[in-house]
Amino acid sequence: VQLAESGGGLVRPGGSLRLSCAASGFNFGDYAMSWARQAPGKAHEWIACIKGDGSDVLYGDSVRGRGSISMDNGNNTMYLRITKMAPESTAVYYCAKAKAGSNWLNPSSYAFWGQGTQVTVGS
């Protein structure tokens, strides 16, 4: 299993973020996927998850109404878009793959993580 996040960098306050997660080493559409982040000095925070076939999604409170998670099964890539970014959203953002047969709605089901991409919100 390999997961590679990209798209991080500097985002202006109020701006939008779009991240990609390129997956390989498994049948991408067979597994739920998720995004999480970890800010400096803070706990790991789950952001959103999506079923392997893309038929259902769930968002955490911190991005609900501003976030959009999607999958392109043809390109084995997952995306995350967040609008109205604020400085407190500065963090390393990670994508993750669910364990086989797990409950996709449970954040603890996601056991395989990428290396993360740094996102800094500032001017």
Description of the molecule:
- The structure is a single chain.
- By secondary structure, the protein is mainly β.
- 0% of the residues lie in helices and 50% in strands.
- Strands 2, 4, 5, 6, 9, 10 and 11 form a 7-stranded mixed β-sheet that branches.
- The termini are far apart.
Separate helix tally = 0
N- and C-termini, Cα separation? 36 Å
How many DSSP-defined strands? 11
Helix content: under 10%
In percent, how much strand structure appears in the residues? over 45%
Rounded mean pLDDT is 96
Radius of gyration: 13 Å
Q: Main beta sheet, described?
A: 7 strands, mixed
Give unreliable regions as ranges.
Answer: none
Shape: globular
What's the helix-strand series?
EEEEEEEEEEE
Label the structural class: mainly beta
Describe this protein with a few key phrases.
123 residues; mainly beta; 7-stranded mixed sheet; 4-stranded antiparallel sheet; 11 strands; globular
